[in-house]
């Protein structure tokens, strides 16, 4: 989506999230992938509010930092647009429209789905094929976002000297990741991937490898960080660190962490209610967890017990090798948070 050019070769996958900038660089040999470099640089408080970038300059600084600490030489990259800032919808148009008029016609059709004037919107589309409802119609996947969402990300990237080749929706990146690197998509007809981020929690439901349902809710690890800050008088950075290494007073687990985990379970239950209500599909066969929140010990089991669907941590890297400059222990602990940038990096091989 929103492709700027089509040069071949690997691209840095860069995820500007609400808490950090994450980078990954892959190379491919046959069907095998290798991680050549990766890095995470946290964003200071105030750089972004949820997924809205407030200070492009602070984001630009974090990108510079991540380029430096990952030691990559490449500057060509793919960036993501959060699903919550995009419209991603299958629409039907008459199959008789000549290819040259398709864009203009889709722009007209799109107006009814996009709550902004079309001149303030970036959109792209992909022809999916004949419509199920009528052979005279064809289905087109429409992706659109406000131009300002693209521009603020480009501004930050350019400040750091990046050369942006592709801007794609994060849900497309996750879909590409799963179709390329995860065998579970073949085995399970309906797979839900739940991402517990810092400020957002999202779900993508896959049916036979295609994302058919995406949703994001404002809930995330920042809430836990804030509670720790207030309760124990720590700074944002101290609380974030203490949360990861478990260095907190005895009452922390029963009084703070357990209620948070119960809230995580309720988020998943809500997602599933929305999914079942919107699609009337059969049962979800498996839930995979990603995002930093998935690193909380035992959360997979707790969700499985409460919901009754097999649940595990997502690990798209089980067959991936690491370049010698990548620290395996550090990389392994960051895996749950690296799905979006990896899906973006895979755009370089299409
Ligand atoms: N071991 C851990 N225990 C508890 N929380 C953790 C752990 N590791 C990471 N986190 C939390 O996960 C969150 C970061 O996850 P992630 O990198 O997926 O978020 P993000 O992509 O920056 O956020 P978003 O997707 O909402 O923009 C932070 O709140 C972080 O404190
Ligand atoms: Mg994220």
Explain the layout of strands and helices.
Elements: E1 12-16, E2 20-29, E3 32-42, E4 48-49, E5 52-53, H1 56-70, E6 76-81, E7 86-94, H2 99-110, E8 121-130, E9 137-146, H3 147-159, E10 163-169, H4 170-181, H5 184-187, E11 190-196, E12 200-207, E13 210-218, H6 221-232, H7 236-245, H8 252-279, E14 286-290, H9 299-307, E15 311-313, E16 321-322, H10 328-334, H11 339-345
Parallel strand pairs: 1-6, 3-16, 6-10, 11-14, 14-15
Antiparallel strand pairs: 1-2, 2-3, 4-5, 7-9, 8-9, 11-12, 12-13
Helix pairs in contact: 1-3, 4-11, 6-7, 8-9
Bound molecules: adenosine-5'-triphosphate and magnesium ion.
Concise account of the structure shown:
By secondary structure, this protein is α/β, with parallel strands linked by helices. The protein is built from 11 helices and 16 strands.
Helix fraction, binned, reads 25-40%
Shape type: globular
Number of helices: 11
Query: Uncertain regions: pLDDT < 50 for 5+ in a row?
Result: none
Give the N-terminus to C-terminus distance in angstroms: 12 Å
The CATH class of the largest domain: Alpha Beta
The CATH topology of the largest domain is given as: Nucleotidyltransferase, domain 5
Query: What is the total tally of β strands?
Result: 16
């Amino acid at each position: 989506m929103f492709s700027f050019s089509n040069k071949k070769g690997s691209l840095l996958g860069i995820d500007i999230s609400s808490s950090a900038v994450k980078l990954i660089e892959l190379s491919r040999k046959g069907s095998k992938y290798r991680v050549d470099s990766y890095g995470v640089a946290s964003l200071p408080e105030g750089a972004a509010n949820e997924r809205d970038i407030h200070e492009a300059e602070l984001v630009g600084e974090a990108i510079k930092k991540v380029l430096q600490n990952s030691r990559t030489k490449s500057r060509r990259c793919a960036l993501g647009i959060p699903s919550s800032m995009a419209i991603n919808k299958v629409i039907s148009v008459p199959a008789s429209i000549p290819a040259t008029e398709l864009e203009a016609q889709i722009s007209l059709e799109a107006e009814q789905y996009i709550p902004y004037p079309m001149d303030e919107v970036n959109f792209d589309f992909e022809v999916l094929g004949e419509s199920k409802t009528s052979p005279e119609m064809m289905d087109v996947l429409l992706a659109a976002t406000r131009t300002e969402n693209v521009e603020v990300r480009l501004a930050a990237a350019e400040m750091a000297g990046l050369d942006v080749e592709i801007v794609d929706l994060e849900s497309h990146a996750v879909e590409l990741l799963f179709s390329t690197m995860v065998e579970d998509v073949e085995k399970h007809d309906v797979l839900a991937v739940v991402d517990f981020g810092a400020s957002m929690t999202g779900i993508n439901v896959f049916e036979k490898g295609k994302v058919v349902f995406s949703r994001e809710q404002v809930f995330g690890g920042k809430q836990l960080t804030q509670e720790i800050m207030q309760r124990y008088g720590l700074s944002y950075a101290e609380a974030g660190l203490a949360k990861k290494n478990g260095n907190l007073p005895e009452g922390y687990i029963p009084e703070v962490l357990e209620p948070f985990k119960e809230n995580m379970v309720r988020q998943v239950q809500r997602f599933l209610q929305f999914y079942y209500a919107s699609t009337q599909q059969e049962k979800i066969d498996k839930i995979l967890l990603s995002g930093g929140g998935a690193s909380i010990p035992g959360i997979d089991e707790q969700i499985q017990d409460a919901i009754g669907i097999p649940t595990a941590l997502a690990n798209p890297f089980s067959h991936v090798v690491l370049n010698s400059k990548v620290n395996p222990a550090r990389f392994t602990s960051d895996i749950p948070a690296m799905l979006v940038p990896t899906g973006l990096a895979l755009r370089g091989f299409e």
